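INFO worker-7 received task bundle
INFO bundle size: 2
INFO processing item 0
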Amino acid sequence: MKILYGIQGTGNGHITRARVMAKALAKKGLEVDYVFSGRPAGQYFDMEDFGNYQTFKGLSFVSEHGTISYLKTIQKARPLKMYKDIQNFDVSSYDLILNDFEPITAWAGRKAGKKVINISHQAVFTKDKVPSLGLGWLNRQILRNFAPSDIALGVHWYHYGQSIMPPFIEREVSSSSSSENVLVYMPFEDINEVVELLESQLDQEFVLYHPDVKAQRKVNNVLFRRACRTGFLKDLEESKGVIANAGFELSSEALCAGKKLLLKPLQGQFEQESNAETLRSLGLATVINGLDESELERWLLLPDNDAINYPSDPTPLVEWLISGDHTQPDVLCKQLWASISLPQFSRSVWSK
């Protein structure tokens, strides 16, 4: 079987999920070509698991000071270039197309009449009963048409009684050591505004990852680190908590490691706003709307979360994909959720 796997490159969460999948696909000896779009080619890092991958410009949202700028998103978009990329992408040699909210491979597959299976967090918002904020007409159209598929398998923190999978979390760094540091990753915020917030709590040490950090350095109570997957996971495992925007994968990794969460969703981005509300309602995160010093001070006094044992091995999903029978995704999803223990303190909320 030859597989094409298209991955949205905006943010690191889609790539993290694809990395876990890539290792499981490789163990099965499958031939997989990886395609990424949504960020400049030179900004990808730690991509060894994807072999000779391809990149395209694609389409991504532009943010300023923690809020989506629709005007700059439109100004930066190059729809004619994306249209040509779709028309010129030859998918005839592939038996199956996997997609994680990547538009070029999804549309190329649809144009050629190939089966496209969407494995993404975005797919959960096409399901009933899943909490969502700001899911108006425009966002519904984006969900349906940005990266169309024949089968959509959503990935979420809870299944809500539907064909939704748990996140696969590969804890690559095993560490018995711990620190009192707090890990900070807020790529959609202005770095100077984030530092100003952190320096309001000089008695607390923070480890800050941000796209604008060019070299490691220590200033007052903030250790600046450049992007590095292994180093990031180590700092996550050793930290006492995580401050972040409300992306799906980092929140999932923090929940799996039992870390408390302080989240500021990207304003105007319904997925992040919905993520934050879901975790708040489940008692798993504190949510803030701005970089508020008093909210940070209160959050630092909170205890850790109970760890959630999300699975690390997507082999059951891979076997389902290569079986060719994709008619019963609910059976697969029930299998994946069977061994997961929900937090005791929020179990009544999860069962609703």
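INFO item 0 finished
INFO processing item 1
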Amino acid sequence: MWRVVVVIAGVICGGSLGQNIVAAQPAPSTEEQFYDLVFGEGVVDTTLTPNLAREKLVSILKSTIILIDVNCGLNEEQQFKLRIAGEIQIEHLLDQVDEKRRVFLAVKGDPVRVKHLLAEIRPLQDAWITNPFLKGSLFWKALRKALPESQAMKAEALFEQLLSNEWQETIETFVEIEGEALGLDDTHRSRLQAVLTKQTRPSNKLVPYRLGDLLSQVSRMPETTFTSVLEKKQWQALKTELDFVANQPPRIQGRVFRASHERPRGQMRPAAQFRGN
């Protein structure tokens, strides 16, 4: 079965990545492979069909409405309107996927047309890994119409705070991983966290993919941003990692980053040389 598979053949060694190989099977040619491409999450065990995708989106929708109800209060009519808007939004996304599926099956024998189609479905891939019911969505527009202004503003503030809290947790995860790998003391970890909090923007990606968004942002920061946080060799080691991760598909960037820091049993972390004494 076709999968996009990332193979990390080397490990971080001496502050730089070893031989890293991104291996991909030939272009997809079956309907199942098309769904892998749209809904896949890198190395997965089962194909996520449109029906399963719908179930996942409906679950997110239900959780979103419950969260708003608990914190802002919703009557039955408001809940109904939000549920309908969310379901319409879900169907719209899946209709777009089905439209591209039909095009894909019609052109799958033409490598050039398949290549162009793969570029066209990128927005669908991004939509799948993004929280679909945040500000700007059809769901959110329905919320603004269904709720009084004060209630809608309360819901908006709630989600902005949740997004901020989740982003802070993502930053803390990054600092914890790199703090150990680069041997940062508590002071430097606090400084790194402060820099990232100030100079990155919260991502609306779903939790499994949010770390990848942070990695992409950090990889584009100039070295001068970190002069008060990291030594030059530490920044160079980190930049090498981030440059590699930034070239991976968005849905597996966080996974690749974590995998590159896994410590073989009985061995010290490769970047332990940066620790003092």
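INFO item 1 finished
INFO post-check item 1: The chain is about 65% helix and 5% strand.
INFO post-check item 1: Residues 136 and 243 are 31 Å apart (CA to CA).
INFO worker-7 idle
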